[in-house]
Write a structure and sequence with these properties.
Length: about 375
């Protein structure tokens, strides 16, 4: 029996509902997920399905959290509070240790600093706390000469940039995000989930690969001391599996800025809509010059951690090059290990958000995003508000 699709689409976006239904029909019977999109500040897609799921349900979105974290940094750069070409150590002197004195904020945001993890790794409680991560990594020797290459700072980039925010503002990145972004727009995208909102959270479910998919995973194991293992804290004996990270109340409560956020698809899409355009009478959070700066590609090519082609702007993924080549130049956003994805395409006025409960194979943005984004983008190109 097919799962019922709930929610609404604007006139002209009926094909998006059909594509979402097709995606759901191909999933396991226990699939739960959400899809949302805005065009020029108007929500045009708002769909969901699954047991215990509605449009306000919150899922662990892993690295999609980085989009919220680095929207804060973009705002502070726009304000003149932070300067992209200042050395990180100018704001945070301890970071200069072990050859990192010349690393600029721009290089850090572009995953070029080489501080992807700690030699000794972290416990779950340590990894939940950005302040602890930052303190440990200030004295860490980089894993490559900063600026010469790039690699995904998967679980630590938000702590590193967040410490810069704290040093210059006296407030945590999470506090600035709550005050300037989440609360004013009522977004269902939290970096720090209050106890009172815990009832909205559905725990992440582990990946359930088919036998052929499992064979692929088994054929490409990570060595225990590779850059990837260090970046994902897998080199620690007894390390907690990634699936359990957002399922930790400590992680959700502290809102670990690299991977500890929780969101609905409405929250993801709404944040990117607010970042780049007017929403409900409020002016865009980012000015056009700032939008162009954060979306400009700063690192492209071979990622030393992912061992694959990747593209990054300033704290964001370069969405068109990395995921969806039909999007406009300068599209920016972030995906998460569970399958979530959110982005803004400023040239078309499109903002997109997708969440799912069960981790998708093979990790990162779930494959169905390709179909869903194309459907939304195609409808948006033909659409004009009545």
């Amino acid at each position: 029996m097919a799962q019922e699709i709930h929610g609404t689409v604007a006139e002209g976006f009926e094909a998006v509902r059909e594509e979402f239904a097709s995606v759901v029909a191909a999933e396991r019977p226990d699939y739960a997920g959400q899809l949302s999109a805005y065009v020029r500040g108007r929500r045009v897609v708002d769909l969901w399905t699954g047991a215990d799921t509605d449009g306000d349900t919150l899922f662990g979105v892993f690295s999609s959290s980085k989009g919220a974290a680095h929207l804060v940094v973009a705002l502070l750069v726009q304000d003149g509070t932070l300067e992209l070409d200042r050395e990180v150590a100018y704001y945070w002197p301890e970071f200069a240790a072990e050859g990192k004195a010349a690393v600029t904020l721009r290089e850090l945001l572009a995953h070029r600093a080489g501080v992807v993890g700690a030699d000794a790794g972290f416990t779950l409680d340590e990894l939940a706390d950005d302040r602890v991560i930052a303190e440990r990594l200030a004295g860490q020797r980089p894993f490559w000469r900063p600026g010469t290459a790039f690699g995904y700072h998967a679980l630590v980039i938000g702590a590193l940039t967040g410490e810069v925010v704290r040093r210059v503002t006296g407030r945590t990145l999470q506090e600035v995000y709550e005050e300037r972004v989440r609360a004013p727009y009522g977004l269902g995208f939290h970096l720090g989930l209050p106890e009172s909102e815990e009832h909205r959270y559905l725990p992440v479910q582990p990946m359930a690969p088919t036998p052929p998919e499992q064979a692929l995973l088994d054929a490409t194991p990570r060595g225990p001391h590779t850059l990837a293992s260090i970046a994902f804290n897998e080199h620690v004996p007894g390390a907690v599996p990634l699936v359990d990270f957002p399922n930790s109340r400590a992680v959700r409560a502290l809102g670990q800025a690299s991977a500890g956020g929780v969101a609905s698809a409405r929250g993801l899409a709404g944040m990117y809509a607010a970042a780049t355009g007017e929403v409900n009478g409020r002016a865009a959070l980012l000015k056009p010059d700032t939008v162009a700066e954060v979306g400009q590609i700063h690192s492209v090519g071979y990622d030393l951690v992912a061992r694959a082609h990747k593209s990054y702007g300033l704290g964001f993924q370069a969405t068109a090059d990395m995921w969806h080549p039909f999007l406009g130049a300068g599209a920016f956003g972030h995906s998460g290990a569970g399958g979530s994805q959110g982005f803004a395409d400023p040239r078309s006025g499109l903002a997109y958000g997708y969440t799912r409960r069960r981790i998708a194979f093979p990790g990162g943005a779930a494959p169905e995003n390709q179909r869903l984004v194309l459907a939304v983008h195609s409808a948006a190109g033909r659409w004009g508000p009545s």
